[in-house]
Specification:
The complex is a heterodimer.
Chain A (H helix, E strand, L loop, with lengths): L5 E5 L2 E4 L3 H12 L4 E4 L32 H6 L9 E3 L3 E5 L5 E4 L4 H9 L3 H25 L11 H16 L1 H11 L4 H8 L3 H12 L11 H10 L1 E2 L2 E2 L4 E2 L2 H15 L3 E3 L4 E7 L2 E7 L3 E4 L2 E4 L3 H10 L5 H9 L7 E7 L9 H5 L1 E5 L3 H12 L9 E4 L1 H4 L11 E6 L11 H19 L7 E7 L1 H8 L35 E3 L13 H16 L2
Parallel strand pairs in A: 1-13, 2-3, 2-14, 3-10, 5-16, 14-20
Antiparallel strand pairs in A: 4-9, 5-6, 7-8, 11-12, 12-13, 15-18, 15-19, 16-17, 17-18
Helix pairs in contact in A: 1-10, 1-18, 3-4, 4-9, 7-8, 8-9, 8-14
Chain B lengths: L20 H7 L4 E5 L2 E6 L3 H10 L1 E5 L4 E6 L3 H8 L11 E8 L5 E11 L2 E6 L4 H8 L5 E4 L5 E6 L3 H7 L3 H4 L6 E6 L2 E6 L8 E6 L4 H9 L2 H4 L1 E3 L2 H11 L43 H9 L5 E8 L9 E4 L2 E12 L4 E9 L8 E10 L2 E12 L12
Parallel strand pairs in B: 3-13
Antiparallel strand pairs in B: 1-2, 3-9, 4-7, 4-8, 5-6, 6-7, 9-12, 10-11, 11-12, 14-17, 14-19, 15-16, 15-18, 16-17, 18-19
Helix pairs in contact in B: 2-9
The chains are: A alpha/beta, B alpha+beta.
Amino acid sequence: MTGAVTKGGRYDVAVVGGGHNGLVAAALAARAGRSVVVLEAGPRLGGMATLGPRNGGFDSAGAAHLIDGLSPALVQSLELQRHGLQFAVSTLDDVALLPGGELLVVSGRDPEATRRSIGRFSPRDAERFPEFEARLGRLSAALAPFLDRVPPTLRFEEWSERLEYLRLGWAMRRLGRRDMRDLLRIIGMNSFDLAEEVFETDALKGLIGFDSLLGNRFGPRSPNTVYTLLQRKAGTIAGRRGATALPKGGPAALIEALAASARAAGAEIRTEARVAEILVDNGRVNGLLLADGSEIDCRTVLSSAHPRTTLLELVGAGQLDADLVRGLRHARGEGGTAKVWLRLGALPDFGLSASDLGRSRLVFAPDLGFLERGHDAAKYGELPDRLAMEIALPGLADEHQLGSESKPVVSVTLANVPYRLRNRDDAQLKQALVQRTTAALADLAPGSGETIEAVEALTPKEVEAATGAPGGHWHHLETGLDQTYLLRPAPGLAQYRTPIQGLWLCGAGSHPGGGVTGRPGANAARAALAAAKTGR
Amino acid sequence: MTDSHSLPLAPGAVLEPTPFHGRTAALNLVNAWERWQGHTTVTTFLSPEDEYFATRTAASLYDVSPMLKYRIAGPGAEAMLDRMFTRDVTKLKPGRCLYGPWCDGKGRVIEEGTLFRESAESFRLNAAEPQLHWLDACAYGFEATLEEVTEEIAGLALQGPLSKQVLGDLGLAEAAALPFFGLGRFGFEGGEIEVSRTGFTGDLGYELWIAPDRAERLWDRLMAVADPRYLRPMGSRALDVLRIEAGHILVNVEYVGANHALRDSQTRTPDGLGLGWAVDLRKPGYFNGRRAIEAERAAGGPKRRLVGLDVEGRKPAHGAWLYAGRREVGQVTSACWSPVLKRNIALATVEAAYAEPGRVLNAEIYYVKEVTQGRVDARATVVEPRFYQPAHRRG
C-alpha cells in the first residue's frame, strides 16, 4: 500500500448500493447498534425503484410506480410510517383494458363490483372468481412466511437445517390435504394452463397471465409461472395480501422514508461513492476500495449489487471456486421489462372517471395468446407489434406526483420487451417502445394521442447502465423455480452468506427476489448480524 | 432378414492409431491392443515381464501419445493455473514441471497430472480425462487462452536407469542433463524435440514430445540403439506394475474424478489420496477447494485415506476387502507382486482410523484357482505407498 490511499472511515458494516434493499439492510444493522455506511455509486438513492426521467415535468417518476409486497414486518420495525411512508391508495383496482373500450374491473375493495364486472363477460367466471382468489390466497399464504426466512441448505446432517425443512413441511401440512395436493400440482404449472382450467373470459385470463410474468422474461406458457404468480400474491401491502398500493410521493418518497429510518438509527449514507473493489485478505473481508482511491475500513460488507457484480467484479473470480463462478455465470437475468412515461396535456379517456383512474392499475393484456405471442417475439429478439402493459396515473390520487407542470403523467410498464433487439441498437429499441406505447395509448384512450407533450423511456440496457446490474433485470435474476429459494442466486449462495467471510449478498438477486419488498435486504442483514453474534 | 438389435457396422475404425502405430504394430507380436482415449495402444508386445525388467534394469519405450494435452497461454495463465492447482504455480519457473492435483469447490480431486511451464506465459497440462470444460470454467476472469493439443504432440516415455545413456546415444546429452522435473526444447533431426524429465514408473526417465509427422523418425533413432542398451518397447501391463511399485495413483482406479463420479463417496480430497504434501496452504492466492480442504482438515481430515499395503504371501490382493478384526475397513484398489522388491504390494483405501503405518489388517483375497475361485486371508500391513523409490531416479 502506498501513502496515496486516503482513509474513507471505519465502520462495523458497509452496505454496497443504495437501493431499497441496501437501505433496509443498513437500517437494520444500524438499529442493532452497528456503525454503518451506505455506499451508492450513483447520484441518487433507490436503485431501480426510482429510475426515471427527472426533468420536463416528470419529477417524481420512478420505475416502481406501484408497490405490491413491502414486508409489513419491516414497515413496522423500521418505523417507516413515522419516517414519512404513506400510501395515497392502499388497494388499487385492477382494470383490464380491452380493444374497443370495454373494461373488466377486479376491485380490491369491492367484491360486488368485481362480480358485476366479470359477470358482464361470463356469469360462470363471476361465480368462480372469489373461490379462485381465495385459493391463491391460501396457497400463497403458506409460502409467505418463507419469504422472510433464510433458505436452508442441503446439509441435512445439521439440526437447524432439518428444523427449517420441518417448518416448510409443516406449513404445507397445515394447508390440509386438499390444498397441499393442489399446491403440489399447480406450483410447477404455467399460468396459461391454470387460467384456462378455471376461466373462460379472455380478459380475466390475460390479467392473471400478466401478473404471473411481469418483471420476468416469461410468457404465460413458460414453466412454473404459477409459482411466480403465487409469489406475487404472497406479498402484503398496506395490510392486504396480494394487493397493489400507490405510495404517496412515488417510489422516491418510499426510498426517502427508508433512508430517513436508516439515518435516524445512525447510518451514514453516501452517494457518488462507487465501490471499486471488495478487499479480501486470507479469505475474509478486509475493507472496501472506492473508485476515488479511498478505503473504507470494515469487516462486514452487505452488498445489494447484482450477485455477479459483487462476486465476479468487486471480489474477483480468482478468490472463488471455479464451479461457484460457473453457477453464477449461468444464472439467467436478462431484462424483459421496460418503462415509458408520457406527459399529457389532458386527462386520457379510458372510460373511467378521474377518481377511478387515479385508484386503478390498468392492464392491457387482452388474452393469453396475446401475451404468449409477445413473449415469442421477445425471446427471438423481436419487439411484438403490440405490447402488454401496465398503466398508472399516480398524479391523480397523489398531488405530489403530478409533476412540476401539473399535467397528468402516464407511467407505463411494458412486458415482453427483448433485452436486445435483433440487428438493432438500444436507441432503436427505445424509439420503437415509444412508438408502440403512444400508438397503444391512442388506441386505448381515444383522443389522447394528440395531447402527448413529452415522452421518456427506459430500456433494460439503460437500467443495466444506470444501476450496474448486468442484464438490467427487475429481479436481478429471474425468479423461476430453478432460481428461487435454496437455488437463488446460485447453488451454494442461497443463505446470503458468500464464501468470503464477512461478505453477504443482500440484493434482489437473493431470496426471495426483486420487487420493492425489502426482504432480501432484511433477511441478509439478520443473517449477518446473527452470524456476527455467534462468531461464524 | 435384418436383426433390429444389431449395431450397424462402423464406417471406419473406431479407434485412432497413435503417431507411433506403424512401428508399434510391427513389433506387437501377440497383437494385444487396448483403447486409451480413443486410440489403440499396446497392452504387451510379447512378454510383460521382459518389458518390466527392461524398465527396472535398462530402459523402455512407452507410447503416451493419447494422453490429453492442453496448452494454457497468456498473461493470466500463471494466475489461472495457480487458482486451479493446489500447488503454488507462481513458483514454477519456465523450463520446469510440477505434479499435483486440481480440485472442485468442495476440495474433491478432479484429477492429478503434470504441468509443464514452457515459457513465462505458456503452460501445458497433461491429463488422463478430458479437462477442457473444467479449464474453461477456471479461465473465466483470467487473461488466458485454452487449446487442446493432444493430436499435435506425439509422446514417448523413455524410462529406466539407462535412459540417460540412450538420450546421449541420440546426441541429446543436453536433454539427458535435465534436472528432475526439468523441461526443455532441443534440436533433433533438423527440427525440435521437447524433453521433460518426468514419468510414471518411479525410475530415472524422460518423456519425449515431438511433432506427429516426426514420431516414427524418433522411434527409429531410439530403436537403432535398442540392443546395446536393452531398450525395449513396453505395453500397459508392465507399466501398471511399475506405477504401483512407484505408488502412483490412477484416476478411475484409486478414485473417481469429482466431475465424473456418480457417488460422492467415490471422490477423494487430496489428503484422502495421500496428496496432502501437494496442497500448499501457504501460497497467497486462493485455489479451487481451498476453503473446503481447510475445513476438512479442521474437522480432523478425510474419512478414508489411501495407503500402501505389504501383503503376506504371493497372491496379488486384487480388489481384496480389508478387515480390522471383524470390521470391514477398506478395499484394495491396485495390487501386484513386485518383482524388484520381491514383495506382495497393494494400494488401498481404508478408514482413516486404520490408515497409520504399521497397522495390521486382514486382506480377504480371492483368486482364480484353475476353474474355481480360491480364497486366502492374508496379513496386510499398512505402509507408505511409495514402495520403490530408487536413488538413481533423481541422479
